[in-house]
Description:
Low-confidence stretches: 8-18
Largest sheet: 6 strands, mixed
CATH class of the largest domain: Alpha Beta
Number of helices: 5
Helix content: 10-25%
CATH topology of the largest domain: Rossmann fold
Order of helices and strands: EEEHEHHEEHEEEEEEH
Strand order of the largest sheet: 1-3-2-4-5-6
Structural class: alpha/beta
Strand content: 25-35%
Distance between the termini: 52 Å
Amino acid sequence: MKTALQISEGSLSNTIRSTIFVLTDTPAIYGSDLNRDSAAPVFVKDIETLITELKKVDVAGLVLEVHKVMKASRRERDRLFSFAGTFPVMRAKLNPRHGFVTYLDPRDSFFANLEAAIGKKNRSYKRKAVNLTCNFSHEDDPSMAVPQEAEILDISPGGCFIHTHHTPDDEHFLHLCIPQLGCTRPIFSSIRWTRQDTDDSRLCGMGVMFIDISEEQMKSIEAYQPS
């Protein structure tokens, strides 16, 4: 039986057999959750090492622990998401006290996205067409002192499309507030793509992936029914 590979700074492996990389300090907590076709995932302790390993592959799946991403420096986060922005991502939260991990995205969809990464990717969640007013601010404005008002046109617990003509320049992250869903706590999010050069003004905006989102916020999004 193949065992999980663990990569730490100064100890890189040359025999990686898996296309799933997990950013974590505690590989044992994952058990065999992420094994595919008898191949174990690759556990990586830091973002710099993860980026180095991603440069060696054309396609990879990323399991990112939210607290690891949040604790990283802005430079590290920018490098990670600018380099790996097209790779399938699954978010994870640890409960080290009770020894288990919670996946914020469906594993089946993550595996399907990985299989289809070369072609058209599936969404982890089905997006709902909505019309929700929102506010967003730059990464260095977590208190949202200078927010921009925009409109969300589709949403899922994994992310949303924000219709706006004011996409942040040279930014990879933002803070997002959706008052109509009772989401008063800003959701720290990654900007996956932006679009401005289009004949249809309704297509202008950006697609974002929620990173630091609470269970209550996810439930609120899942339960929301557009009128």
